[in-house]
Amino acid sequence: MRKDRISKLKEFLDLDPNDSFSRYALALEYAALDDSVQAAALLEELLRRDPDYVPAYQQLGYVYQRISRREDAVAVFKRGIAIATQQHDQHAAGEMREALDEILDAG
């Protein structure tokens, strides 16, 4: 089932490489398969193409945490908080702030 979703999302990206939602959803599918390297690569590409896509910052920060890239997680959460705040998305900003605080407190 998951492989079917991955295939379909790849088809969507073939049709429109700038489809942020499909790239994001594909990254989440890989994260669910514990393929953090592929998930990170997709989220990094998404943010290069669409730097205002707030959910990608949050998920990329979580992926970086899972693969012990602490400094990268801190940087991406800080950037995500700034973008979310600019977009008045206090919910996402708050969740990223909590994740950032956990990293810094554990530091």
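(ticket continues) Second input and output from the same batch:
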Amino acid sequence: MSPQQFEKLCRRVYDLCGINLKTGKEELVHSRLNKRLSALKMDTFEQYFHYLDNDREGKEVIWMIDALTTNKTSFFREIRHFEFLRDRILPNLREKKLRIWSAACSSGEEPYSITMMLAESLPNFQSWDIRILATDICTKVLEAANQAVYSADLLEPIPPAWRKKYFVPADEAKMTYRIVPELCRLVRFGRLNFMDRFPMKGPFDIIFCRNAMIYFDRPTQENLVGKFYELLAPGGYLFVGHSESLTGANHRYKYIQPATYQK
């Protein structure tokens, strides 16, 4: 891939989904797209970019974004947010209704972690009106999230009693486990590009958007947290990744603690 081709790709990806690939990402981009060229039986990036330019249905654009996005996650990642949810938010709810958005849900560990914490923390959990929206731009991880099946090693961060309570064997030979239906039914997954107009109206009591904005420049981050602000209920909370401080950014949130903000 020539420097000119890389620059063109960076502009295209930035315009499509706000991701900034320019800083030190050349090798990663080259490696990931090479696999796509092999799958399409193409020899050069020039052929691939021509193919993208003539992708009228937009399917290859989705494939490309899937290839270039990073989807690292785990159950109860950055546990302090879940402890804050348990100790500070849930005890102060005025009605038995909760709307939560996991805005960069990856393969589903985050929204399912939320459901487990709610099930363990709310009295008469089954009688609550709870809906969790979980979105991501990557179609591959959304497919995995919808299946709600995880290997045994991925369950390590979950307390043993919770594993026994909220997972059932999916494939004993492969040592995989499935989230129980009563938790799955609370979560609705969908594909969403942060650069598009948001179809949801809210309001949400809590928005989790963690470890996604590190791939955006400051103007894109400010625009995104502004859109989140409009969808939060008064007093609602925004959780961002611990490497994604809003310090110095233009926003209207009240700082609560590291990576935790309130409308």
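Agent notes: The chain has ten helices and ten strands. The CA atoms of residues 208 and 239 lie 5 Å apart. Closing as not reproducible unless the customer responds.
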